[in-house]
Amino acid sequence: MTQVSALFGTIRPLAWRVASLGAILAGLAATLSPVHAAAFEWDVSTEVWVATMSGRAGTAIEARSRWPTRDGAYQIVGYEDGSDRPTRFRVSWGSIDPNTLDGDSSTIEIPGQPYNALNAAMTVNIGADRVATAIQVCLNNDRIKGLRLWGKAVGRDGTLGNSERKSEARRNNCHDSGWSARVGCGTKKAISALRFHKRSDGKNKWSFSGISIACSRIR
């Protein structure tokens, strides 16, 4: 009987230690795993497509994150074919909530036209800790040859910061006179979606020629 009691006395502390270790590991896993329930989201009722755009209008292709109520754009990468035509863009999205780790990327391309996947033509990146608030394109022969992207940090209370960070990329044939109007969201909104516009050159070939934006508040 004494041996049995001693055995149970040994098992109980061991079981407690195993349970405690399990709780610690579960908490660690929850900390390291991406959180999909954002405290801050886009207030979709405030989303408005800005009437003006940067560049020239054409057939529009819309770009949003797979989590459209939670993610904002922070990076845009452009690719060209072998004939100087911009035919593909990739948008990287990050969570607008600084407390979460969500992220995504979306690809916008012209079907049937090639692109040089090994050599990006232009890349603008304001940092994953910011959300885009304004954009500007440079045109040459109605083709996007340069990009400027502005963005602001989102505070832990969900408000946008006051200072904007700017990122610029341009091809050699983006001239200073080729910059179209800057299009922005104002002081209390940020870019929640984009539309990439494409135009035909009359030879059954298309190029991206402009970008328009939708702006929303964060709640």
Summarize the structure in words.
By secondary structure, this protein is mainly β. Helices cover 14% and strands 46% of the residues. The protein has one helix and 13 strands, in the order H-E-E-E-E-E-E-E-E-E-E-E-E-E. The strands form three sheets. Strands 1, 2, 3, 12 and 13 form a five-stranded antiparallel sheet that branches. A four-stranded antiparallel sheet has the order 6-5-4-7, with no helix packed on it. The chain is globular and about 50 Å long.
Key attributes of the depicted protein:
mainly beta, 13 strands, single chain
| Radius of gyration over all CA atoms, rounded | 24 Å
Number of helices: 1
Order of helices and strands: HEEEEEEEEEEEEE
Q: What is the first-to-last residue Cα distance?
A: 65 Å
The major sheet is characterized as: 5 strands, antiparallel
The gross shape turns out to be globular
Pick out the low-confidence regions.
Answer: 2-8, 14-19, 23-38
**What class do helices, strands and sheet pairing give?**
mainly beta
Give the integer mean of the pLDDT values: 85
Proportion of residues in β-strands: over 45%
Beta strands, count: 13
Share of helix, binned: 10-25%
Write the layout of secondary structure elements.
Layout: H1 2-32, E1 42-49, E2 54-55, E3 59-63, E4 71-80, E5 86-95, E6 103-109, E7 122-125, E8 130-140, E9 143-153, E10 165-170, E11 183-184, E12 190-200, E13 206-218
Antiparallel strand pairs: 1-13, 2-13, 3-12, 4-5, 4-7, 5-6, 8-9, 8-11, 9-10, 12-13
